[in-house]
Design a protein that fits this description.
The chain is mainly alpha-helical and 334 residues long. It has helices at 2-32, 37-48, 53-67, 73-85, 100-135, 140-152, 157-171, 191-227, 231-238, 243-280, 286-296, 299-327, 329-333. The protein is globular, with a radius of gyration of 25 Å.
Length: 334
């Protein structure tokens, strides 16, 4: 127990280090950006109303004090972390004066729901089919499934999303292709709203699942193909152990350990794929928000999205790391 707590402590320190350096790198990128948030807000205000030179000067002074752009880099960096700890990353430039973190909190449930659903489905289905394909190597169905998934695996997320968009949006329009829910339902915990959300999430999730299946299928099939040649599997078969027990208890369980480790490494890639997919389907998550913020030069919202994204991915990897010793007795012994 003491060793496991020490392992948890080391992984927690690593997680905080990743979060710290990742967010610091994003701050540096936005600091070096040629976009001036003060001028961005002034431009929008001037477009809405005629401001006198005196009003523009006073507004510029107030905005400079608000964003702290006139201060040295180390002062801005310190103020950034001070505000971040308090959950304040300043006002969004494209929705001024709405706080940037408020916009992120609106989109985060959509992105997390899409990411978790697609990742869980991809991991379970890909490993299950890959494991069965590795054990029943002459089965035609698993061979055909492998050809299809391996053919889709190298295709970028946005290409698959566009293909699905064309098929279900124009050729066979049976599912909604845009938005997070229908305009004729009110956002609430009611069955019509929940069903509408599920309908609108099917195509984005489907595109993520199609691309992700191939990697898990290939990895699991290779692992199982090696494990079935081990002596303990042969002995179990000769001893008359049920085939279901051999597949689930002897083969799949041992092959699953490296796959759980791989899960921690692909979470970041799946998250980036989710961001692109959201933009294709106009899904109201953090991906669409990030693209809109980049196009508008809204560095406050970009920082907020990246901060939440880095933290969420690092925490997910931390959880996967904690599961590894529970699945692998060798790691638990070490």
């Amino acid at each position: 127990m003491h060793g496991y707590l020490l392992f948890v402590g080391k992984r927690a320190l690593l997680m905080f280090a990743v979060i710290f350096f990742g967010i610091s790198a994003m701050f540096l990128v936005t600091y070096l950006s040629p976009i001036d948030p003060v001028e961005q807000v002034l431009g929008r205000l001037s477009a809405r109303s005629n401001l006198s030179p005196e009003a523009i000067a006073s507004t510029r002074e107030a905005l400079t004090a608000m964003f702290g752009t006139g201060q040295p880099m180390h002062v801005q960096y310190w103020n950034f972390w001070t505000r971040l700890i308090q959950g304040d990353l300043g006002a969004s430039l494209m929705a001024f004066p709405t706080p940037a973190m408020e916009l992120v909190m609106r989109g985060m449930p959509w992105t997390l729901g899409l990411l978790l659903t697609s990742t869980v489905i991809t991991f379970i289905v890909g490993n299950l089919m890959g494991g069965l394909a590795g054990y029943f190597q002459n089965n035609r169905f698993f061979k055909a499934f492998g050809i299809v998934t391996m053919g889709l695996q190298p295709i970028p997320y946005y290409i698959v999303a566009f293909i699905i968009l064309v098929i279900f949006g124009f050729l066979w329009p049976v599912l909604p292709i845009s938005g997070g829910f229908s305009m004729d339902v009110r956002p609430s915990w009611t069955m019509p709203f929940i069903l509408s959300v599920l309908q609108h999430s099917l195509l984005p999730a489907f595109s993520l699942v199609l691309v992700g299946l191939g990697g898990w299928f290939i990895g699991m099939r290779a692992l199982v193909s090696n494990i079935v040649t081990e002596d303990y599997v042969t002995y179990a078969e000769l001893a008359g152990v049920k085939r279901e027990t051999i597949v689930s208890g002897y083969v799949m369980r041992n092959a699953l350990v490296p796959q759980v480790t791989a899960l921690a490494m692909v979470i970041g890639g799946v998250f980036s794929g989710t961001i692109i997919t959201e933009q294709v389907f106009n899904y109201p998550g953090m991906g669409s928000l990030l693209v809109d913020a980049v196009n508008a030069g809204d560095y406050s919202t970009v920082l907020a999205v990246c901060t939440v994204s880095i933290t969420a991915v690092a925490f997910a990897i931390f959880i996967v790391d904690l599961l590894h010793p529970l699945l692998d007795p060798r790691v638990r012994t070490e």
